[in-house]
Amino acid sequence: MGPHPAVAAIRLAVRRVLNDILDDHGRTPGHPPHEQPPSPLVLVACSGGADSMALASALAFEAPRLGIRAGGITVDHGLQTGSDLRAAEVVLRLRELGFDPAESVAVTVGRGGGPEAAARDARYAALDAAAERHGAAAVLLGHTRDDQAETVLLGLARGSGIRSLSGMAAVSGAGGRYRRPFLQLDRQTARKACMVQSLPVWDDPHNADPAYTRSRLRHEGLPALEKALGKGVVEALARTAQLSRDDADALDAWAGRAAAGVRDADGRLECAGLHALPPAVRRRVLRRAAIEAGAPAGSLFARHIEEVDRLITGWRGQGAINLPGRVVARRQGGRLVIRQG
């Protein structure tokens, strides 16, 4: 008799991602070890919650069968009393699963961008450092289809454009470091997989705290949408994310090619060439130019780009536009100059 359907689903999702990682590193399962490059190390980011524990269990099962070394990292954000003890418990569970390395990393969470964004920034910085320290080929993250739906709605609320609606990528980070095997699986499947395998899980009280935007969306917003629109909202939002990502990737590629064609010999942007571009492409060119000039991407919002865009489409002799990172955009002699002031 095979494994429970939930267990089979999470293992299949992880197996597919691990095979992709092997392909990326030139390894072929079944070939003699002496003909293979060194076994890659894959880390799992594990909070001890149902999603990441299900992910850890699937990695522990699949990795040895594919000749992959498996390790685990838990990040102690220090935001709750006893968080260090809880992190130590997660490390113990990871070691019981056979992970090496298995470690806890303590971080200091700042205040920039709000508590959720600050915690996320600290967490990814710690995971990046751990991956570099151990020479990991990839880090697996336990985001599910439900998380994707929440991310799409948060992007919609910000009004940040199609890139925000594209949600989380299955592969992201420097060199494709981060992999999300569960984006096509719902949260209940992960929880069920933990239950049938008798895996202990920890439910973070922050996930139910209405002080956090994502928590309110999870427990109030999405249920209200499902009540009004019927079941299937989460699946529809996840599909929207994929379609939006495909469109955004295509537009980004177009903008990359267009940027080279609207620069003069000195590298300045020609206003006439920019004006001829479709708005979606032109604004991407402007955003990229602002970031290259030193504007922090996370602080550069749609309203900033719209103001710069008016220097092209609504030119009335207006003055310079101040952007985050002390970057200034101004129109001079038919050219758009974007640089730090």
UniProtKB/TrEMBL annotation:
Its main location: cytoplasm. It holds the Pfam family ATP_bind_3. Residues 269-336 form the tRNA(Ile)-lysidine synthase substrate-binding domain. It is found in: Cytoplasm. It catalyses: cytidine(34) in tRNA(Ile2) + L-lysine + ATP = lysidine(34) in tRNA(Ile2) + AMP + diphosphate + H(+). Ligates lysine onto the cytidine present at position 34 of the AUA codon-specific tRNA(Ile) that contains the anticodon CAU, in an ATP-dependent manner. Cytidine is converted to lysidine, thus changing the amino acid specificity of the tRNA from methionine to isoleucine. This is tRNA(Ile)-lysidine synthase. It comes from Streptomyces calvus.
